[in-house]
Amino acid sequence: PAAPIITIDGPSASGKTSVARLVAQRLGIPYISSGLLYRAVALMCLLENVTAEEIEHRLGKYRLELHPTPEANRVLLNGKDVTESLHNLEVDAVVSAVAKRPGVRAYVNAVLRELPGPFVIDGRDMGSTVFPEAKYKFYLTASPEVRASRRVPERDAAYETVLAEILRRDQADATQSAPAKDALLLDTSHLDLDGVVQAVLGHLTERA
Ligand code: C5P
């Protein structure tokens, strides 16, 4: 198929980024993690020591770029690579408030819509809002407990802390996280990463 966009949405720690990366590798196309851009705006708040509401009015100070490479996405803020500063509990704590601001969503979506296809992209509202025309849409789910145990090794924090953070973020993200009506829902609670990737690839083959 010509330059398809494949969207993979789901709640935090549902495995969507790992799945998107592996599916993209198998197809030989870039993957994009849209959450990185919200994380970059959260980092702006931490750097400037301002609230989500205040950063909405300072977005013009920042040039945000996302560069997909075969292994990972690099995020540049005013030309500086900040990728390594985007996954920690400090950013986790402010990112949902940032992502609620309409001005922030418009800013991030404008960056995303400039990216040339084809690609596999993960997020919350990629299939429902940002790329409604995408040819293939998936929505991954898993219980909060399963998601917490998957995330503990990435956060260097106790299971209870990570579970609480996931439950809090589920609530905070609920409004922008409804699955697209035409998305395929995949419950990954009882699948390992490879199982989810196989399910996605199988569906793509069936629908091609
Ligand atoms: O996917 P990830 O956990 O990195 O996303 C971080 C945060 O960014 C989410 O908790 C959510 O608040 C926000 N987000 C969003 N819409 C997206 C992607 C992420 O609101 N498409």
From TrEMBL:
<dbReference type="GO" id="GO:0005737">
    <property type="term" value="C:cytoplasm"/>
</dbReference>
<dbReference type="GO" id="GO:0036431">
    <property type="term" value="F:dCMP kinase activity"/>
</dbReference>
<feature type="binding site">
    <location>
        <begin position="10"/>
        <end position="18"/>
    </location>
    <ligand>
        <name>ATP</name>
    </ligand>
</feature>
<dbReference type="GO" id="GO:0036430">
    <property type="term" value="F:CMP kinase activity"/>
</dbReference>
<feature type="domain" description="Cytidylate kinase">
    <location>
        <begin position="6"/>
        <end position="203"/>
    </location>
</feature>
<dbReference type="InterPro" id="IPR003136">
    <property type="entry name" value="Cytidylate_kin"/>
</dbReference>
<dbReference type="GO" id="GO:0006220">
    <property type="term" value="P:pyrimidine nucleotide metabolic process"/>
</dbReference>
<keyword id="KW-0963">Cytoplasm</keyword>
<keyword id="KW-0547">Nucleotide-binding</keyword>
<dbReference type="Pfam" id="PF02224">
    <property type="entry name" value="Cytidylate_kin"/>
</dbReference>
<keyword id="KW-0808">Transferase</keyword>
<dbReference type="InterPro" id="IPR027417">
    <property type="entry name" value="P-loop_NTPase"/>
</dbReference>
<dbReference type="GO" id="GO:0005524">
    <property type="term" value="F:ATP binding"/>
</dbReference>
<dbReference type="InterPro" id="IPR011994">
    <property type="entry name" value="Cytidylate_kinase_dom"/>
</dbReference>
<protein>
    <recommendedName>
        <fullName>Cytidylate kinase</fullName>
        <ecNumber>2.7.4.25</ecNumber>
    </recommendedName>
</protein>
<keyword id="KW-0067">ATP-binding</keyword>
<comment type="similarity">
    <text>Belongs to the cytidylate kinase family. Type 1 subfamily.</text>
</comment>
<keyword id="KW-0418">Kinase</keyword>
